[in-house]
Write a structure and sequence with these properties.
The complex is a heterotrimer of chains A (153), B (57) and C (247). With 153 residues, chain A is α+β, with helices and mostly antiparallel strands. Chain A has 2 domains: 30 residues; 87 residues, Beta Barrel (OB fold (Dihydrolipoamide Acetyltransferase, E2P)), CATH 2.40.50.140. Chain A contains 4 helices and 6 strands; from the N terminus they run αααββββββα. In chain B, 88% of the residues lie in helices and 0% in strands. The chains are: A alpha+beta (153), B mainly alpha (57), C mainly alpha (247). Chains in contact: A-C, B-C. Chains A and C meet through helix 1, strand 6 and helix 4 of A and helix 3 and helix 6 of C.
């Protein structure tokens, strides 16, 4: 390899490696800001901001959803299996919202420890299967989010 | 509901599923047509240039 | 070995090869597309949670994979053209950029159409979506550089450096869903244990992914062929091509 090509090759490696290291350091420094949501445990540990709105993510506890029959207001409990937090919300829920489902709520922590959400988004998991397979798994005792929302045509 | 209708209905998600597919195929087709058109233009321009050169001689 | 490489990497030879391969690659792509679409739209069952809306997966996931794959090809071709001055690598990098940008746009747009009914929002600024948007800007920046710089060799070098600087974004996009809490779900197929998607849904997805691969191979050759003509517009062999076309 002639010296000019060697020099060029080295500079290519230098660009890629340099950008890699710089970005890794920058991302490490901003780690906390890159989290799209906090878990109930982080909230319990006081890691979440109290003065400004933030997002909280977790699973909707089975049987915890209570809807107000006259309005869109809804109350439910979020869990990360370690800590729980009560959430109140007044608005339209996404199609995937159901008990056992992972969701992300955006809002503010009230002094009494409940989370007042102004936005609720559903976070679906990476599992895809036909309804029959889900039923079979459910019968076999595998824990899956409630699939009652889907009715075959 | 006929089976074609229910297929087009996509369980109520038609307004999300079909635009996704249509958009994809529009973009894929454009990416074939545009370079072919440009190649045609390139050769037409080249032929023009050749004619001009032949005239000048 | 390098002699062989330079011979077959010569613009003229590449032009002929491209003419030969494009119809075959395009044909295979069409067959795979038809198979993948029938499988995905008719035969795959609806998802137990997302119902029919999950069918967007068949255009969204292959587009997202291609957006990353094409970037790696573009940056590698850029590095090769930078170090070894292979003209064909230049043309391949230049031809890849609009295709990569198209697939990145499609991944974002179809993802948005999926996100609205399922997540409840068109867009969120989580790590996965934001890094994919940065990828789109990298492609667009590369394309802007190519049009802004008149001298094609300088443009190719500047583009190669830009694409190498952006390579760091590729692992970030891929691992974003594992490194940080994101609204976007984790990997289904590329994780180390068994894919968590039922085979009846997985097979059409893989067919669509191969269809998009062949599409890229066919169209990148088509585009690179044009880039080569532009690069070599003053050479005798391009001039001779007009004879064939008229006849």
């Amino acid at each position: 390899m002639n010296p000019r090509r060697r020099k060029l090759l080295l500079s290519v490696i230098f660009i890629v490696a340099g950008m890699g290291i710089a970005t890794a350091l920058a991302l490490k420094a901003f780690q906390a800001n890159l989290l799209y949501f906090y878990s109930p445990m982080q909230v319990a540990a006081g890691e979440a901001p109290t003065a400004r709105p933030f997002r909280i993510g977790g699973l909707v506890v089975e049987g915890s959803v209570s809807r107000n029959p006259e309005s869109l207001a809804v109350k439910f409990t979020l869990t990360d299996t370690l800590e729980e937090i009560n959430v109140t919300y007044d608005g339209i829920l996404p199609d995937l919202f159901r008990e056992g489902q992972g969701i992300v709520a955006n809002g503010q922590l009230l002094p009494d420890g409940t989370f007042d959400a102004f936005e609720v988004l559903a976070k679906h998991d990476e599992n895809y299967m036909p309804p029959e397979v889900a039923d079979a798994l459910a019968k076999a005792g595998v824990k899956l989010p409630d699939s009652s929302h889907y009715t075959p045509p | 509901m006929s089976s074609l209708q229910s297929f087009l209905h996509m369980g109520g998600y038609a307004i999300y599923v079909w635009p996704a597919y249509v958009l994809t195929f529009i973009v894929l087709i454009l990416n074939v047509i545009l370079p072919l058109k440009r190649e045609g233009q390139f050769f037409r321009a080249l032929v023009e240039r050749k004619k001009r050169l032949e005239k000048a001689q | 070995m390098f002699e062989y490489f330079y011979k077959y990497g010569s613009p003229r030879h590449f032009y002929d090869l491209s003419k030969m391969f494009v119809p075959w690659l395009g044909g295979i792509c069409l067959i795979l597309l038809i198979a993948g679409l029938t499988g995905g739209l008719f035969f795959a069952p609806p998802d137990y949670q997302q119902g029919e809306s999950f069918r967007i997966i068949y255009v969204h996931v292959p587009s997202a994979w291609m957006s990353l794959f094409i970037y790696v090809v573009m940056a590698s071709a850029g590095a090769i053209s930078l170090v070894w001055k292979v003209k064909v690598a230049d043309a391949l990098a230049r031809a890849s950029a609009p295709l990569g940008a198209s697939f990145t746009f499609l991944a974002l747009a179809t993802g948005s159409l999926w996100g609205k009914p399922m997540w409840g929002t068109w867009w969120v600024w989580d790590a996965r979506l934001t890094s994919e948007l940065i990828l789109l800007f990298l492609y667009l920046g590369y394309m802007a550089l190519q049009t802004a710089i008149d001298d094609r060799r300088t443009a190719a070098r500047a583009g190669a450096i830009l694409s190498l600087v952006g390579v760091v974004n590729i692992p970030i996009i891929h691992y974003s869903v594992e490194w940080w809490h994101t609204l976007h779900q984790g990997p289904t197929i590329t994780k180390l244990d068994a894919p968590s998607i039922h085979p009846s849904m997985l097979v059409p997805l893989l067919i669509m992914a191969f269809a998009f691969m062949f599409y890229y191979a066919a169209v990148v050759l088509l585009r690179a062929r044009y880039e080569i003509l532009e690069n070599e517009r003053n050479s005798a062999w391009v001039y001779e091509l007009t004879e064939q076309r008229k006849g």
